[in-house]
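TA notes. Do not distribute before section.
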Amino acid sequence: MRPKKNPQKDLNKKSGMFFVIGLLLVLGMVYTALEWKTFDPIYNIDVAMNDIDPSIEEEAPIFQLEVTPPPKPPVLPTEIEIIEDDDPFEETEIIAIEVTPDTEVVDPTDFEVIEEPEEVKVNWITIEEVPVFPGCENEKDKRACFNDMMQKHIRKNFRYPEIAQEMNIQGRVNTTFMINNDGTIGTIKKRGPHDVLEKEAARILSKLPKMTPGKQRGSAVKVSFAIPITFKLQ
């Protein structure tokens, strides 16, 4: 029996080739779609080619600056006016000191010599009789009593500054103050980590009571005393 179709015309034999050709076409289209780039159009406008309206006329304004002439030199007066000064003029009388045979010899004993007392300052360690804090008059060891009363005074008047608490400022303030020869508190010197603590330490020492002054060789003298005040946050 003869086949109905010609074997040479059978397209199934070339299906693989058609598949490869179709695949290549699809890949080419995909590649072209991915690599396709578009750019914004560029408009080149030549400004120099613009025509200027000849009816427009521009003129630059002209400013005229006024030159200030130099000042004229002052004219001296032809006549000099004399003004009389009514203020009295005090002349210093100069006494000439010339030694002559008639010069009177002055006895040195006729002059009164005024001696100014020399101010003596003694520190706490070398003072013979230390200043007496009020309440320590009858104590045998007045140095120890003085130190105890100083500590009590500091604890009683101690006040931690609020601004120092907020800023977390703490540390030790070294203070030195003078007990005058009349028992009052003199110059207070302080040195610490911050001005706020130094001011508080000075305030505490300024509230010290009047004391019995210290004595050196039987005379009242100034005595310097140093004490540290510690500010510590809990």
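Switch to the second chain here.
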Amino acid sequence: MLKPLTALFAAAGLALSSLASAQAYPSKTIKIIVPFAVGGIADTFGRVIAQKLTETWGQPVVVENKGGAGGNIGADLVAKSPPDGYTLVIGNIGTHAVNPFLMKNMPYDPLKDFVPIAHVLDAEGLLVVNPALPVKTVAELIAYGKANPGKLSYASGGLGTTSHLAGELFKSMSGIDMVHVPYKGNSPAITDVMGGQAQMIFATMPTVIQQAKSGRLRAIATLGKTRAKAVPDVPTIGETLPGFDVANWIGMFAPAGTPREIVDRLNAEVQRIMRAPDVEARLETEGAKFVPTTPETFAAFQKAESAKWAAAIKAAGIKQE
């Protein structure tokens, strides 16, 4: 009987030690890995969260940018870190939903190697066209595409980017034939849409909102489930094509196995931070919105996004690189 009792006491001791560790959290510097370059929306709000956590907890929370391989390098670093809450990642639709279906030899499994903490934000999207294109609504765009098969072209920031996948989803749901014109980044793609070399782009709001307001581009629709505060009179694509929804989302993740107490505490802090008036104002400026979730609802969302984009990529015939 001694051995079972010894094992039982050891297990109990380990559980108490884990609980004590979680209750003492944080007791040292926390690293938030942003697997992208400095200056993007993931970096911007990763730093907002880090600053607010530092102020609240009195422990340094620092951001480290580890870009490369579509975000896989930084995300993989976190996947292989100790599950103690001291190394976190700001992932996005690419690193935690799309990349496995676009890239060969993925170094991690987005669903198995992480525990979702919080859905930080959705970057609002906008479908804009060159003003010379004789359409002002999604219905008119679809009618024009069906009357002129193969004559419409849409630009994107590159193969497998959200702007590319949104275009492929629109093609499949609308039944029109469009030519994809990939660029090395969103800026040259947007420039060529304004110049008429391509006719439209499914872009993030901040990258095209000023051009749309000035008339250099025409805003046709937003990409998410609901209308955007920045352009409340612009309808969603889903109002014409029910079920269309493209969210360029960002979330916080920890390595799988991170104690639930730490996950819950981080979730509560993200909720508090993203609801702060100054952060809400910053979100609106950036053309983004906070999406409140529990860890469970964010995990369900991530799983649904993975299934959705796996199907869309397969249907579009996009090959892994």
